[in-house]
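Below is how a single chain appears once it has passed through the pipeline. First comes the sequence as given, then the structure the pipeline wrote out for it. We keep one example in the README because the format questions we get most often are answered faster by looking than by reading.
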Amino acid sequence: MRAQPKKKKKVDVKREQAQKDRMKKKIKKLEKAAPELIPIEDFITPVKYSDSNRVRSLPDLSPEETERRVLLLKKWCLFKQKQDNTEKKAIQSMVEAQQEALKELRLESEELYQAAIRRDEGLFPFEREGPSYTPPLPGYDPPEGKCVDITKVYTQ
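Resulting structure:
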């Protein structure tokens, strides 16, 4: 069986024209009085929040909680110390294996040894421009660090 074809909607020309006219009026109205945009200043902390008088008071901890935290800190320090020692041992064993391989290579061929110990400049590219040290300007008086508030106030 075939599906029945959908009936086409009758298009009312007057209604469609009226809708277009309304849209044109709205566009003209928006173009005439474009609202002034207020800049978003998310990254500026208001002065009232940076007041040094605002200090949070921490709740007093029970002796059990203090003891628990001290033990946890000791366990963490021990874990990090063991982790650091295993890393150092792994690096040391790699360096020793590398030195042993270089000794064996030197016994095999001096030319290959010299090629192996040659520095690879492309491994860590480094470029530097200009002087590495800039002397101070004579007679330059640095600013005191005083802040002048130039915050703009917007109203609508």
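The radius of gyration is 38 Å.

See the next section for the split statistics.
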